[in-house]
């Protein structure tokens, strides 16, 4: 009779999970949640970076065009600089003449002689700095004026 008190029926032995099984399952769940969180965080950071690059890229061409017009309007100076804002972007720029030369001679069909042009061509080195909140990008390009 005393042995019957300590024996369990088969229905009672399979009623739940052991502590080890619960801990292992919890650990696996934690690992999966951590991995998903890291992937989501990486995607979110990439999205912010792509948005910032896209904003800079969208404004580079119009700002460069504005700088080009200012350079072409100036005839005498060897160094130019300026600044401004466009949208949410602020920018500064500096331009200096790298090379300068006279226009080549051209044949004048009416007079039958070579005419030397009075135009002077300038090759400018332009450096511009764009700033959006705390992000800064630097760009360089060449511009020709006459």
Task: Please tell me about this protein's structure.
This protein is an alpha+beta fold and 146 residues long. It has a single domain (17-105, 119-145), classed as S-adenosyl-L-methionine-dependent methyltransferases (N-terminal domain of TfIIb, Single Sheet). It is built from 3 helices and 6 strands, in the order αααββββββ. A 4-stranded antiparallel beta sheet has the order 1-2-5-6, covered by helices on one side. The radius of gyration is 36 Å and the shape is rod-shaped. The N and C termini lie far apart (115 Å). The relative contact order is 0.12. The mean pLDDT is 87.
CATH superfamily descriptor: S-adenosyl-L-methionine-dependent methyltransferases
CATH hierarchy: architecture = Single Sheet
Total helices: the number is 3
| Overall number of domains | 1
Q: Quick one: overall form?
A: rod-shaped
Q: In the CATH scheme, what's the topology name?
A: N-terminal domain of TfIIb
From the N-terminal CA to the C-terminal CA, the straight-line distance is 115 Å
């Amino acid at each position: 009779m005393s042995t019957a008190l300590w024996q369990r029926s088969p229905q009672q032995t399979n009623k739940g999970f052991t502590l080890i099984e619960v801990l292992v399952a919890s650990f696996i769940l934690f690992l999966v949640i951590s991995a998903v969180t890291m992937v989501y965080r990486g995607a979110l950071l990439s999205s912010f970076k792509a948005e910032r690059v896209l904003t800079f890229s969208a404004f580079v061409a119009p700002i460069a065009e504005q700088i080009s017009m200012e350079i072409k309007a100036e005839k005498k100076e060897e160094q130019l600089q300026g600044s401004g804002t466009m949208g949410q972007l602020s920018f500064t720029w500096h331009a200096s003449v790298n090379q300068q030369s006279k226009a080549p001679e051209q044949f004048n069909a009416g007079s039958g002689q070579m005419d030397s042009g009075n135009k002077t061509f300038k090759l400018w080195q332009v450096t511009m700095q764009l700033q959006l909140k705390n992000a800064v990008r630097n760009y360089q390009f060449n511009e020709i004026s006459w």
